[in-house]
Predict the 3D structure of the following.
Amino acid sequence: MTAGRQGPLVIAHRGASDRWAEHTRAAYLQALDDGADGLECDVRLTADRELVCWHDATVDRTSDGHGPVHEHTLAELRRLDVSSWKDPSVPPGYGRAAEQLLAFTDLLDLARAAGRPVVLAVELKHPSPFGFDAEDAVLATLDAAGWDPGSGTIGQVSVTFMSFHPGSLQHLGSFVPSAHLMALTDEQDVAVAVAEHAPDLAGPLAVAGVERLVDEARMMIDDRQVGGAGPSVAYLRAHQEKVRRWIRAGTLVRVWTVDDPADVALCREVGVPEVTTNRPADVLELLGRRT
C-alpha cells in the first residue's frame, strides 16, 4: 500500500481517538468506518504476560483504575471502565462497554476483518519491566496468526513495528526485515520527556542515557539500519530538509500526530508518505478523499 497523488496514507492514532476513547474498540471501528488506511497502537504486557493496547505506563489517565499496567492481569483490565473518561456513550455496533478494552489479538482481528488493505503500526513502549518480552510476544502472536515476516503481511494487513528505543528495534531486527522497522523521534526536550514518562528515573544520569538513545535512534535512520522514520510534526517543522532527505533516500516517513490543517498541508508539501492522526475523517476530507 502506497500513498497516492491525493497525499499521504492516513493512519488512525490509537484509533479515531479524537472522537472516542483511545485504544478502544469504538475508536478503532470508527477509524475503519471513516476510511483510515491504517491503525496505530501501543502495546504493553500485563501481569500475566498478555499483550494489551495501552499507551501510558499506568491505567490512571484512561480508566477508572489505578497503578501500573504491568501490575494488572488482562482479566482485571477488562473489568475497568476505559471509555467514560472520554465519552460515557458507546456507539451502536461498536461493542458493549465491557468490550472496549482491546488485547493486541483483538485489534489484529479487527484489522483483518476490515476486508481491505490496512496498515497496522505497532509501537513498543519503553522503559518496560519485562525488557524486550513484549517484542517477543508480538512476534509470537503474529506468527500464530499466519504472519509472513518477509512481506510483513498477514492477509491484507501490513504490519510495521515502531519504537523510540533503539534496543527494541535491534531486538526486533533479529527476526524482522529492516524495511518493517521504524525509529521514532521527537523535538521534545529530553529532560521534560523523562520527567513526564519516567518520573521515577528522572535525574542527570537518566537524562544523559535517554539523550544517547535518541541519538542512536536517529543514527539508525540515517544509516538505513531501519526502513522507517517516525518524526513528530514538531520535528518536521524544525527539520524539514532532514525529513526531505530521508524521503529522497527511500525511507518510509510517518509523521505524528497530524491533526491541524496547516500540518496536513506541510506534510503534503514535503511529500510525507504517511501521517498519523487522531482525526482520520477530518484529514481524509482535507486530502479530498472523503465527502
The chain has eleven helices and ten strands.
